[in-house]
Design brief:
The protein has helices at about 10-20, 35-45, 60-70, 85-100, 115-130, 155, 160, 180-190, 210-220, 270-280, 300-305, 325-330, 340-355, and strands at about 1-5, 25-35, 50-55, 75-80, 100-105, 170-175, 200-205, 225, 240, 245-250, 255-260, 285-290, 310-315, 335-340. With about 350 residues, it is an alpha/beta fold. The chain has a 7-stranded parallel beta sheet, with helices on both faces. The chain has a 5-stranded parallel beta sheet with strand order 2-1-3-4-5, sandwiched between helices. Strands 10-11 form a two-stranded antiparallel ribbon. It starts with a strand and ends with a helix.
Length: about 350
Amino acid sequence: MIKVLIVEDSRVGQEYLVHILTSDPAIQVVGLANDGVQALQAVKEQRPDVITMDIHMPKMDGFEATRRIMESEPTPIVIVSTTTSAKDMVLTFRALEAGALAVVLRPQGIGHPEHESGVRELIRTVKMMSEIKVVRRFPHVKKEPAPPIAPGLSVLHPAFLAGKAGTGIQLVAMGASTGGPPVLHRILSGLPPDLAMPLLITQHIAPGFTEGFVEWLAGVSRFPLHVAAHGELALPGHGYVAPSGSHMGIANGPRIVLSDHTPEHGLRPSVAFLFRSVAQVLGARAVGVLLTGMGKDGAEELKAMRDKGAITIAQDEASSVVHGMPGEAIKLGAAMYVLSPEAIAALLAGLTRKTKEGPG
């Protein structure tokens, strides 16, 4: 049985979530908390496998409760949001930074056309997050400076010795899943405003949160970010995030292609679709980056990118919430580099400098 603690300030909301979660025989609700203060005590007493966390609550909101739980009693936390308003999005993504693993919309009421799909998404997410072993978040830990990857790129990649790498790169493709939002936040905060190539991002995230996710990332990015649109030209110094429910790839140009093709690895958008498209269209003129996430979405396709001559990067295990996707890529020999988020940002910044300098 998966033991779940529900943290929700509305009694009606509590009863609704109990009804939904206990409809699955593998889930047991072991406690209810009306606010973050009660949640802290309930976690110690009930030792749940997963916590569903509301954001706006009296006494202590969902962000602060998440932060304190991850510092004292680390437990997988799923943020269950009632809206996608700007105010909710700020606290929701701050909670992900503090250690929450996923965010979903509370399912619509019985009789609503999206009720069943919302119920499936919530139950699926709770079950998946119960499998993740989270670690304690220590407060006020000083971040180590990023290693000097960029100045030493000629040592890392043979093409740089010939003065060719970087000058021909036309695009960076990134893929992430569980734990991805805060990692992307860290990477984008370290990239220069004059990024010399477009950046395409596929992040597995629940429907309804893509726009808020892009706005949140835009708060640290020094170049424009967009929800990708079909047919638009991918411009240097711009970032594009795959919209909910659509695969994202590229055509010559490079132009963005959106597709409602069959889900891959049960996902749409999938990282596999993006990386495969980039490998086919750009070959060696691209960079692929595979970040934290469950499963193996994008691993084989990162290998295809490397086989075509692209620069390929996988996130290291120490900085990954879940090392499934990058770990699978490493096993396949798909990654030229295995790096922390800060080192990934430094390498991409170095590629920008190399592109501007030109060959030689």
